[in-house]
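Dear Dr. H.,

I hope your travels went smoothly. While you were away I took the liberty of generating a structure for the chain from your last submission, since the lab meeting agenda had it listed for discussion. I wanted you to have the full record in hand beforehand rather than looking at slides cold. The sequence, exactly as received, is reproduced here:
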Amino acid sequence: MSHFTGPQFGAQTGAPIDWVRAKLRARCRAEAERWAAMGFGTIPSPRKTPVHEGWPGLALRTPEDVRAHWDVFGSLSGPNVLLTLLGFVVLDFDPRNGGLESLAKLEAKYGPLPTTRVHGTPRDGLHYVFTHDGTTPVKNGELDPVLYPGVDVKTGRGGLIPSAGSVTKHGAYTERSDAEVAPCPSWVYQIRASSGGAAKPSGTPAPPRTHDGPMGSAYGRKLVRGVCADLAGVTSGRNDALNNAAVRIGHFVGSGHVNEDYALTELMNASRANKYIAKDGYAAAEATARSGLNKGKTEPLDPPARSAKTGAVERVQREVEDAETDRVGVQESGPVAGADGAEDADENPTMGDAPGAKSSGIEIQDGQQLIRDLARAVNDGAVPGLYSVGDGLVHLRRVYDPELPAGETRAAMESVDSLRLGNLVAHHLRLYVVERDDRGKPIREKDKQPAQVVFKQVLASPSWSLPPLRGVTRTPILRQDGTVLNEPGYDPASGMYFDPMCAFDPVPDRPSRGEVERAFNHVYHEVLGGFPYVGQADRANAFAYATHVVGRRFLEGMSGGGVQPTPGVNVVAGSQGTGKSYLASVPVWVFGGDVTDYRPDEQELGKLVVSTLHDKRGPVAILDNVPDGYIVKNTTLASFLTQAVPTARLLGQTKNVAMINDVFWGLTGNGTRQSDDLRRRFFDVRLDAGMADPAMREDFALGDLKAHFGDVRNRAKFVWCCLVLWRAWVAAGANEGSCRMRGSYGWWSKPTAGLLEFLGVGGFMDNYAPGGSAEAERWEPFLMAWRAKYDSTRLKVSQLMRDHVDNGDADGWGGSFILPVNVNDYKAVREAGDILASKVDKVWPCGLVLRKSKRAGSNTYRVEHVNG
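The corresponding predicted structure, in token form, is as follows:
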């Protein structure tokens, strides 16, 4: 345990102050010898921070150095011993910022920390001391301010902690454990690397690093290391050598490539190595070094420029590498060389280059100014990949999607909350505070991550000037003016971000007759021709559905330019194995999207619909495998099919989120139907194989379509064919056609009818029957049988149920009874009452209406003709 407990006046009260100071310095020196023997660098200080400029170069690392040079610190040699951490890693857990909670989280995930030396701080914090492995680069800073707040990593020449026994105004540092120092756990390096910096997007020059760290640019650091290595080997003429070295470095301090404090530290370290300080003293060496640096700063120099040939070769090589790693034109995250080793980027690399310049850093002065500065920096594009959607922000990042073929990734839009914004700022902006001495003179800049509430306030900004993002497309599409979007990256004209899945052939503005015929044959016959359609209307509807993605934005432009919801497609058959899911999945395989099993529970289905739209993986969303004969009824789905920008509450959130509804919804099932409020919002594609085992058919010209579209070249061909057909129609005038679907979906159905008429495809929407209600098919026979049996007699629910139980279908129901039949079950009777109550006063196409009235306190029902 520590023998040094800080100032102890005790019986010496009233003793001369010089004697007290001498006593403290002696005790401090003895304690420093003990710590130096353990391998720590030691520096005396009257407080918990150094008071000597260039302190990292002054640390005494052996007991012999302490005994020989301790007095050089003069009156500033106590009462505390500060430990520098070259060769050590310290985890600093601050309970005021959640450090102890983070310690519990870390141990729950990685297991208990190794038994090692532990110091306690005056404010109940903990310093866990470990040895560095000597090879893995790790930097000072917060471990991960988002996942593990209140945990700092301190290490290397710049790392510093007070020793056990040091005293501040808040109390003394204590030694909680004097165990042997253990090796640092490997997860510390991993977490610190993932949160310690991010790769810059390709094509964006990195800002000067003078204020991006304590040392300067890569060139400046290399220069300082080389000059100081030469200076350390000088054996004569040390003063002149130090002056010349300082002048040479000073040229680059003046141009911003070397941090002056860092330069002075290294010069003084070299002067200790060549015995200058031992011979002439620290003050003389410091004066010579400062004089030389000041002289050099008056004539600033920049690093020598690369030759034009070298620059061109590197630029071409970089462009080739960028194209191979990311066809969007944005280099995926990777290591960036630096003096402290590679800096790992965010695990979800940023996509795109939003307009605006990067900021080199923001000084934290007060809360209000910081909020304004951060909002301004975000608006200026300091955080790449941010776009505006409505009154919020989204971040574009690259993700690995299990639905995609192996090896493919895609760009995804992610809503930005305060946690995500804090993480992005930590990777792309430097926030720091300026530490000052007792006289207010700046000493150094220290990185600092603000509290999460700051980022909440930033996100509350009333408006953003960032580019508006409408969505992401992985294929070329038509813009609202009919031109083809085929340039990777953000497209201001459409608000879309083009993230190409592969290289696409150019689409002619005016396709030739031969190109149109080849494209039509591939889509209409080769891809879609093998399905057993009931009639021509089903085939025409399938063609419109499969090709709509490339032209949706253009149709919105024809109707005024805003987002418009499309009708849904209902792919229905009479038996399994007919090909419903395959047909519905064709545009999903090509353009991207979701195919998710249908959930009969209405509440669960509503949650599924909301999450599918919020996390959309593409322009198509299919609710697959509706149970056989099921009547689909869901208020959320119904509302989403009529709203351009619906709002809904996401799981785990307390406020509604607005979402752009630009997906094409679909259902698949055998003999399925829709409720009244959904029927008019869907059109049918009916399939009937006309055989007992339709799965045995081999009618597809291209074989297994899923395997066929697993090849990206086949997807590219299908996209090109769709674009050729749409461009030919646009070049011909984009005339509208006529069909049965009108009303709010007319913006989509009438131009689509015109496209099919232009291509010679008839029957579009001929099977559309919004009045063909699945409910009417069930309720009208039931009500007609009721009217025939009882005329307008009022009946209780239990009487109606008992009649069916007692007499069955032989007494006039003819199999039309739709209510529960367990008349002795109270819940069944109540359920039957709820069913009847839901249809009271509804006029059916057959002219009947169900009425409700009270008799002797009980509900009774009767069936009447609407006209009496």
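Two observations you may find useful: The domain at 10-195 is CATH 3.30.2250 (Prim-pol fold). The mean pLDDT is 80.

With kind regards,
E. W.
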